[in-house]
Amino acid sequence: MDFELNDELKMLKEMSYKFAQAEFTGISHECDEGEKYTPDIRRKAAENGLIGAWISEDYGGAGAGFLGNAIIMEELSKVDMGIALNVVAATFGCESIVHFGSEEQKKTYLPPVCRGEQVSAGAFTEPNAGTDVAGYKTKAVKDGNDYVITGNKMFITNGSVCDFMVAQCITNPEGKKHNSFSLIIVPASTPGITRNKIHGKMGIRSSDTAEIAFEDVRVPRANLVGKEGNGFRQLMHFFDTTRVMVAAQALGLSEACLETSIKYVKERTAFGAPLGSFQLTQMKLTEMAIKVEALRGLIYKSAWLLDEGRPDYTLAAMAKYYGGQTAVFCANYAVELHGGYGYIDEYSVQKWYRDAKILELYEGTKEAEIMTIGRILQAR
Ligand SMILES: Cc1cc2nc3c(=O)[nH]c(=O)nc-3n(C[C@H](O)[C@H](O)[C@H](O)COP(=O)(O)OP(=O)(O)OC[C@H]3O[C@@H](n4cnc5c(N)ncnc54)[C@H](O)[C@@H]3O)c2cc1C
Asked: Is 148 near ligand 1, meaning CB less than 6 Å away?
């Protein structure tokens, strides 16, 4: 067993962090305040091989695997988790194309995203069904060589900026609930699509989130990803990878909270001594550091298993669950350690506190992860 990253991954880690420091730092505050999406940074990131790093070189990716991708997400999230999402999740939804799509779909959709020219989205959640992933109502009805799609999607990352989305639709209404869904690639320019950006998010405000309406949206049946009726199972497999990447966001944010807090408590004094000399302060730093290390172990192992071709659904859910909890915990302590200064926007910790909460909500709420883990533990 070797816990050391190889030289390539070490270089990728260093390069990713330098990129984020150089490109994100100066605009982070402005993008947060003004809800500004960052297409120029996305393109630059692509030039540096930071988009679709997990996708094979045959389809334009960097071939750095899921561990490489998790490391990129971690390092970028140390500086700004919202902008990190704009970069790394520019491929969101493509996981299904990679795993289940045809050769033609892979060649058509993956390279432009890896080059930073296009953006994808994964459109699953609906206004009336999020956690209940078998409760989606969007329908795709066969008509000649086409599907005609009708329904609504909610909270879709990249929703108003994407070029195409992979949407979960009911194609077999007569089948058993879990066999009734299919994933379909929907180009965003198809007539009948309305996209509205959602404003007023608590955190990750530079990321794009939208609601999408499909009204008689006609796409070729060739846009079906994999087999008809397999959409539910494909979505579960999708979570094997995407939950690890969300956990990596949490890791980056938590590390930033810890490092910034260490620096602050060494400089700030109270009662004639540095804050860091007080045992209560040390306890907070210690608890943060232990959680960060434990989280890194869960994420790197999950990502390594993915690269070995042995995805572990339970471990990915654990990483996601623990990631959200760790990020919220560390951001809370970071604000507390900064005292009143932690509450104003002169310091990044107040932003990280707001950003952290989404990690317990999207890609499965923490309750959804508990349900998953609890069920699987008993089925073993
Ligand atoms: C910024 C942002 C970006 C997002 N990006 C995407 C995206 O790109 N694509 C996409 O498809 N979705 C996306 N989502 C949606 C997100 O995944 C859902 O919001 C999330 O899954 C929860 O669904 P919901 O909002 O419908 O809440 P609900 O499912 O209504 O849940 C509400 C509460 O009830 C709890 N709950 C539900 N069922 C149970 C149960 N059986 N037992 C106990 N508790 C339960 C939940 O855990 C939660 O606390 C995004 C959301 C946000 C806010």
From this structure: no
